[in-house]
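Pair request: fold both.
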Amino acid sequence: MLNALFVTFIIVSFAAYFYYKTKQFRTSLPIQKKWYKAKAGVALGLFVVFFGLNTFIIQDTLLGNIVGVVFVVVGLMESYHSYKRAKHEGKFVQQEYELNKQ
């Protein structure tokens, strides 16, 4: 049951990553590109976290636990760093849009 939940989260986070990467390539505004890149980084970090948590369930060995811990730590670091970037750059997206609208 828990495995199915993590697989669902893995699929959703990968879909969010793909969505934001597509939005990043389709926009022409530089700050908005960085904002979408940061949002994609959050989704990618969550993907890695859920993959690591799923590894704990599937691989119940010492090596599986070590790999799971590494994935969770790396994923949390990526998500946290990307979240901070997205929060910072999100402040300027509307302002950039207004300046380039004219």
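--- second member of the pair ---
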Amino acid sequence: MDEAVMTALIAAGAAIGGGVLTGVLTLAAAHRQAAAAWAAGERQAAAAWEAGRQQAAAAWDAAQLQATAQLDVARRTLGEQTLADQRAVRRAAYVTYLSRTDSAQQALSAWRGAIGTADEGSRRREYDLAMGAVGEALNVVRLEGPAAVAAAGETLRNSLGAAAPGTQHSVPQTVFLDAARAALTPV
């Protein structure tokens, strides 16, 4: 073999060896690059997953806070409405009671004025009926309360008794009104 063929074979071997070596090195580099890209993708996916999880947790916490706040508002509104309803019922009971005591006071005065006349019996019956109505209204006042108003109501009723002095009605009525106003005033 002559030297030119030998040189050509060596050159061809070197070219093949260089190509194989370049291929192997390129393949290794590509493998490393693919592994790095895979790892970067995994890190990016994990970061996206964590960001999504944190965002969902924050949304959940915000929704719970909002629901708690809405429940608080609903409870307060319901409580305020309940108190307003209670005040309305009490007010109606107090007004009815005052109306009945006024009627009983008038019936008592009419009966006292009719003593010794032909109207005495009918006026007494009117007074007794009026006092019965006072007793019924006082039961509602006792039921609705509070105790201070019920006690003032009992004192007012007692001031309308047949044996009570005629001028004693206004003082217990004022005490009842004051107690009723205090009970109806929102806290």
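Observation on the second member. Residues 7 and 98 are 133 Å apart (CA to CA).
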